[in-house]
Design brief:
Blueprint: E1 2-11, E2 17-27, E3 30-40, E4 47-52, E5 57-61, E6 64-69, E7 74-79, E8 87-92, E9 95-111, E10 116-128, E11 139-147, E12 153-159, E13 162-169, E14 174-188, H1 189-194, H2 198-201, H3 207-210, E15 213-225, E16 228-240
Antiparallel strand pairs: 1-2, 1-10, 2-3, 3-4, 5-6, 6-7, 7-9, 8-9, 9-10, 11-12, 11-16, 12-13, 14-15, 15-16
């Protein structure tokens, strides 16, 4: 089994939010493509979510990151900022999970059928060679901060309370404080993945995956980097297994 999941987001100066996902799953002879988007026009505004099984793609190179989803009629670009090399964050029985930040502090431009977004953004890719429902985890916490002027960024991943990735750009001593936090989405993972089809299709999922619960948040944050404060938006989430 091989699953590749790309994530890319954009937050405008006034807090409008776009999150895009592109995923490819290979399971023996079976190949499944999936794209999804989450949008909100302001912090606390109603969330619009769409899914498609049409193949989407994300291209990443020295010039930046580009997202294309014909099924959702969404396109976007992430330029500037820096990325990381792939990192192995989990391994078990010959399988592994790797994570790579593609753009830590980018300028993002996204176009959807309902509106455009222009602001700061972040993009990453996670690759798994074991099914997500077999991950030996109870809790997963993830987040990213990007300064309003894209001069600094911070991202972290914690698994069962242990930090497995933490990157600050530029490198330095950093502390992050969250201000007012607003929920983007609090629901089961099948409801997020499958949307209006979750009631029927979730029965086909493994029990462990059916019981995954996630909470996504958008917050104002302040990163103090080597004594200098940087204000910006924070997108973060908590996933509970079982």
């Amino acid at each position: 089994m091989r699953l590749t999941k790309w994530y890319a987001d954009c937050v405008t100066p006034d807090g409008a939010l776009f999150i895009g996902y592109v995923a490819h799953l290979t399971l023996g002879p079976l190949r499944l493509d999936y794209t999804a988007s989450i949008e909100a026009d302001s912090p606390g505004a109603p969330v619009r979510q769409r899914q498609s099984l049409r193949r989407g793609r994300i291209e990443a190179d020295a010039a930046g990151v580009r997202l294309f989803s014909p099924g959702l009629d969404v396109s976007g670009s992430w330029t500037g900022g820096v990325g990381t090399e792939p990192r192995r964050v989990l391994g078990t029985e010959g399988a592994e999970v790797t994570w790579q930040a593609l753009r830590l502090a980018a300028h993002a431009e996204v176009t959807t059928p309902t509106r455009g977004y222009s602001g700061t953004g972040y993009a990453e890719v996670v690759r798994l060679t074991l099914p997500p429902w077999r991950l030996p985890l109870t809790d997963l916490d993830w987040g990213r901060f990007v300064a309003d002027d894209a001069s600094s960024a911070h991202t972290w991943t914690r698994m069962d309370g242990a930090t497995v990735t933490e990157v600050t750009a530029p490198d330095g001593h950093a502390t992050l404080d969250l201000g007012e936090t607003r929920p983007i989405r609090v629901d089961s993972v099948p409801a997020t993945l499958l949307g209006p089809f979750s009631g029927v299709l979730s029965r086909l999922l493994p029990a462990t995956l059916r019981h995954l619960h996630e909470a996504k948040y958008l917050s104002r944050g302040r990163l103090v980097l080597d004594g200098t404060p940087h204000d910006g938006w924070v997108v973060h989430e908590e996933v509970r297994f079982g």
